[in-house]
Structure formats: structure tokens, C-alpha cells
Amino acid sequence: MSESIVPAHDANDWGSALDEAVNVLGRGQVIVLPTDTVYGIGADAFNPDAVNALLAAKGRGRQMPPPVLVGSLNTLDGLATEVSSGARALAQKFWPGGLTIIFRAQPSLAWDLGETHGTVALRMPDHPTALALLNRTGPLAVSSANKTGQAAAFTAREAFVQLGDSVAIYLDGGQVPGGVASTIVDATGEVLRVVRAGAISIEELRTVAEVLDLGEGLEPEPELSQQPEPGAAPESGSDEHAAPASEATEAE
User: Which of 97, 145, 155, 235 sees the fewest Cβ atoms within 10 Å?
Assistant: First the structure.
């Protein structure tokens, strides 16, 4: 096993591994860490060069900015603005866990996550190693620890096979459960809206706050005045993201 893969599954023994990860992040390098879904590749969210290194390791561009993982609910107001009572209630109920919430980012933040259009996707993962690290480092930009288009990694070794030396240290928290990706709720508009179904059902969300499902409550689009030419290709430029600042991966 590579020397860059270090054990970090036992709270009694992971101190030196977390120390090394904190030092690596402080130098602007990237790490791999376990989450409650898949392994993630992480960087200091406030270091643009580090975020660029994360994107380069995955082979993706700035048009697909990574979400930001936090270790405490108290971080929310420092990163997001215009936090509605409903969005706050959802975070209080479902963090840590499988809920990503898209907010308007605080305009004073000195970060550059990519083409976020002034938003940030936030989540608190329900994994002890991840939370222990986040409580030491503060917010981290984290995406799934795989090359774009390839399979997600459920072990540190699987992540290493894909990302290799582009990552300075791999925190080995054992095999992660995988499963359903996080639910994504867009809290940037006047209403809360689910933009990706996932681990938290719409019914569960509605026990806490009024939340609309994807497409619910929207005016239907007018019919086109003419049909496309036979054999014409569909229009380009469609956004594969569920909403600004989100990326449809299980690491969220």
C-alpha cells in the first residue's frame, strides 16, 4: 500500500494522520477523506490554487465547482447570506447527514470555487473522520474522489488507483457505505425547492419546512411555435447541474 495512504478509522489512533492532513491542506495541497457516502477529494476552500488543483486532479473545469463540507452548524452564517428560517430548520434537523443546501454565498468571502454565480452548496457529512478533520480545518471544498466520468471510490485504495500522486495524503477510514446521494435543496430563491432527490425524502423535508419538489409550482413553458427540423440535434448549452454551485455526485 502506498505510503500516502494512512489509517484514520480509529479515533484513538488517527491523531497523527489528521495532523498530517491539516499540514498538507495548509500548504495548498489536496487530500482524500472518507465521507458518509463515498470518498472525497478535499482542498482548502479559501485557497483558489488548491481548489484548482482539486479540479485538475479530477479532470474537470471551473464550470463544475465543488460543494463545501462543514463540520459545524455554526459555520452556516459565516458562509451563507439570506438564510431563511426554513433552510435553517432543515440544516438543524438533517445535519450531519444526506442533505446539501444551496445558499447565496457571503459576498465578503475571499474564495474562488469556480463558476458558482454567487452561490455555495453546503453539507455536513455524517462521518466521524470527516467531522474530526473539518472541526480542525474549517470548511473544505470536497468533490468525489474519482476521475470525472469514472466510478466513485468506496475505499482509499480505489481513490488512489484513480488519483495517484495528484493527492498528497489519503485518509483511510475503511470502506464507506456508498448508497444514495444527498438530497439537494435550493434555498437561493423565495421558496425552498428540491433540485435533486436523494437520501432525505420530500416527505421528511416537509415535516420541517415548506419545500417544493422539482418543477412543482412553476409556470408551464409555452409551446414552441414550430417543431425542430427532422434530424435536428437538441439545443446545446443545457446545464447538467441540478442548480448553481452543485454537482451531481454522491460525495455531496
Answer: 235
Is the pLDDT confidence value at 105 over 90?
yes
- Three-state secondary structure of 128-162: HHHHHHHHHHCCEEEEECCCCCCCCCCCHHHHHHH
pLDDT digits (tens, 9 = 90+) for 128-163: 999 999 999 999 999 999 999 999 999 999 999 999
Closest CA to 186 of 80, 71, 103: 103
pLDDT digit string, tens, across residues 2-28: 569 999 999 999 999 999 999 999 999
Instruction: Return the sign of the alpha-carbon dihedral for residues 98, 99, 102, 107.
Output: negative
pTM, two decimal places: 0.84
Strand partners, 140: 44, 69
Looking at the chain, the number of H-run helices and the number of E-run strands are: 7, 12
Number of residues that make up the chain: 252
Q: What is the DSSP string of 82-119?
A: S--HHHHHHHHHH-SSSEEEEEEEPTT-----SS-TTE
Closest CA to 105 of 114, 97, 96: 114
Residue 84: Cβ within 10 Å count? 16
What does the block give as the cell for 22? 491539516
